[in-house]
Amino acid sequence: MGFFSGVGRIIIVLLNIVFVIVSFVLLASGLVLKFLPHNEFIKSTEDQLKKALGTLLEGTGHDNADLSNFSLAGMFETVAICLIVIGAFLLFVAFCGCCGACCKIQTLLIIYAGILIFLLVGELVVIIVLYASPAVKDMVKTELTSSLQNYKGLTATNVESLLWNAAMIEFKCCGVNNYGDFAKYAPNWDNTPDIDGTDATTLITPVACCVTIPVDASKAQQCAAGTLDSTKNNYNKGCFDSIWDKMFDNPIMLGIVLAVAFAIQILLIIFTILMYKENKDNKVNSVF
Length: 288
Prior knowledge:
Layout: H1 2-35, H2 40-59, H3 73-103, H4 106-132, H5 134-147, H6 159-170, H7 180-185, E1 194-195, E2 198-199, H8 217-224, H9 239-247, H10 251-278
Antiparallel strand pairs: 1-2
């Protein structure tokens, strides 16, 4: 038992040193995004995205779109908070694991093992629920549907519109379930957009749902108005199912990744328990 606990001790220390480094990177990135919103990285990213968006709009006849108010500040603020929270949590876990194994502090070993067990059980529950419970899918669909309230169209520069347009173009889909979501849940959607200087007749789907983004009003009519054609419009392909299928399109590889992750966590739990049993006197020793 002493040999295995010794090997486990070294593994835990080394792995958690890596986690400490990763946590500092996440924390630093989050703090920069949160408190330095006008730094060069964000400005450069916004400029690149604005240029790419402008090229797309010009190529589809929307060269009169106003991108002056384009900003990713709101999105970066959300990302920053997530990075700070994840980084702080990872740093705490890594501290407990590294110091508990290095200095043989029973309290930290108990906390570390408890967190690992909690995470392992939580991951298993999430996976089972995702695959077995339709309620989770319905909840995600509800959240996505609510975001359509701020969808405005292809030329809009607010975050919700940008994300929806990017998703529909990339995954060849339309709405959460299908094109009908826009009539029901997107009151701000401009269904008579100005395309190449001409107002399109009332559209049934956003132009982002077209298989090929139209370059003028007449082509927008052909793909997004009148009688919809599945060869020209992805109107019946919901983005939720398209993205979900894309995420789990390789179950074998996903299973291997999950199996390896679970195996590492289980080994860390076993090694932590072995060290705890060997150090009941709570002595503080050096690494070697």
